[in-house]
Each structure stands twice: as C-alpha cells, then as structure tokens.
Design goal:
Blueprint lengths: L1 H18 L4 H13 L3 H14 L4 H13 L3 H14 L4 H13 L3 H14 L4 H13 L3 H14 L6 H14 L3 H14 L5 H13 L3 H14 L16 H24 L1
Helix pairs in contact: 1-2, 2-3, 3-4, 4-5, 4-6, 5-6, 6-7, 7-8, 8-9, 8-10, 9-10, 10-11, 10-12, 11-12, 12-13, 12-14, 13-14
C-alpha cells in the first residue's frame, strides 16, 4: 500500500509540473518518491531538475548523494554530499550520508568521523548511532559498538532500524563471549520483524551452540526455517542484504555446522 502511495504522489507531481515545470520543491519531492520506489536513476534526474532551478538546496544535494550511493557510485555520492555541506555545514543528514559512502570505500576512520559530526549536530539520530556501532564492531571495538547501539535504542527502541540495532548489539556481545546477554537482543530483533530476520535466527542459534546448548541451537534453526516467509517484509529487503532463499541457505549451513561440530566434540 505504501508503494502505491508513492506512485500516486509521482502522478500528482507530474500533473503539477505539466502546469509549471519550474517548481524546484516539486521536482525534489518527485525525486524522493522515486527514490523510495528504488528508481534511483530517475530520482537523480528529478533532483537534477530541482538543482537546475535552484542549485543552493542542501537537502536536495544530500538526497542526490543517497541515490548515487544506492547505485554504488560512491565517489560521486561524496561529491554531492560535499556540495550539500558547503551550502549547510550543519546538515546532519549529509554528514551521515557521507559516512555511509566513506564506509563503502573502506575509509573507516573517516566514516566514523563523519558520523560523529552528524551526531554532534543531532544526537537523537538512532540510524546514525546504529551504523556507527556496526562499523565499530567490524573494527573489533565491540564495547564502543554496544555503547552506540545503546544510544540508538535508548532514544527510540522501535525506530525503523531498531531490529538491526538489536541484532548487531547481540552480535557484539557474542563477539565478547557474552552469549547469555546476546540471546535477548536477538529475541528483540525477531519480535520487531515478526520472526522474519534470518540473520537473527542464525546468530541466536550460534549463541546457544557456544553455550553448549546443542538441542536449543537445533530447535532455533528449525524454528527459523519454519517461520521464515518467502515474501519478506520490504524493510528487510535491502539492496546489499540477502533475501529469503539466501537466508534459508545460511540457516541450513549453520545448522549443518552445528551438527558437524557437535559430532566432532562427541568423537573427541
């Protein structure tokens, strides 16, 4: 239904532009609707129309950067965010977006610095705290990562990316060997996604296995495979994340590993 609303919005914007094509706000909003539908090239074209009318729109430059990043055109995305920030150095969304592109380019410390700047401008930015935490965990800085996730979840325990924050918080705790504390985090992620987050099922099972609770791990994997639905919720279908088939494949893989490793331990 939400996608239909975006399509209806585009139709209305097109009618407005057929009457007056010099409305930069309409071109910008049209681009945002196209962006939500995953039509990134068309979104950029709309943003470009808006910027040809008024090149001093920081938010439009920032949105253009997001669309370019979704197309994996990271250098161009950074240039767009640089332009946004030259117009408005306090645009927290632009600092956040720039950090995402820098992370994609494996410029990790620069990415964290960009996110820190965004958070200094807007500390109530749970998506930024979450991405920061994910990267800190990747760098092995798990305690700092957990603190980042806690900031995000304290501000809003049910924000749109809260399932990722809970899942990643649990993974950070698991990395530290704190499996008992990790399992409730995966439970939160699964509740928020109606049991449709396959990576939370995989991580939860691994935590049980590492606690030597072999039967609980197997039951977890079987339950996940039973409850996952072929049509995953839209918010879980991100461009860089596997879908249902790949998720089931991962669950079967880790389930197989659990059987194998447990067999080895029994043999020894």
């Amino acid at each position: 239904m939400r996608l239909e609303r975006y399509e209806q919005a585009i139709s209305s914007y097109d009618q407005a532009l057929s009457i007056n094509p010099n409305l930069s706000d309409v071109w910008s909003n049209r681009g945002s609707a196209l962006h939500k539908l995953g039509h990134y090239e068309q979104a950029i074209s709309s943003y470009d129309h808006a910027l040809s009318i008024n090149p001093n729109l920081s938010d439009v430059w920032s949105n253009r950067g997001s669309a370019l990043d979704d197309l994996n055109r990271y250098e161009e995305a950074i240039s767009a965010w640089d332009r946004a920030l030259s117009l408005d150095p306090e645009n927290a969304s632009a600092w956040y977006g720039q950090g995402i592109a820098l992370e994609d380019l494996e410029q990790y410390e620069e990415a964290i610095a960009s996110w820190d700047r965004a958070l200094s401008l807007n500390p109530n930015f749970p998506e930024c705290w979450t991405n920061r935490g994910v990267l800190l965990r990747k760098l092995g800085r798990c305690e700092e990562a957990i603190a980042s996730f806690d900031h995000a979840l304290t501000q809003n325990p049910c924000f749109p990316e809260a399932h990722n924050a809970w899942n990643s918080r649990g993974s950070s705790l698991s990395d530290l060997g704190r499996y008992e504390e990790a399992i409730p985090c995966f439970d939160h992620a699964l509740r928020l996604t109606n049991n449709q987050m396959w990576s939370a099922w995989a991580n939860r099972g691994t935590a049980f296995f590492n606690l030597h609770r072999y039967e609980a791990a197997l039951q977890n994997y079987n339950e996940g495979l039973q409850l996952l639905q072929p049509k995953m919720p839209g918010y879980l279908l991100e461009p860089k994340m596997p879908g249902y088939r790949e998720g089931c494949g991962v669950l079967n893989y880790v389930k197989g590993n659990a059987h194998y490793q447990h067999g080895q331990k029994q043999q020894n």
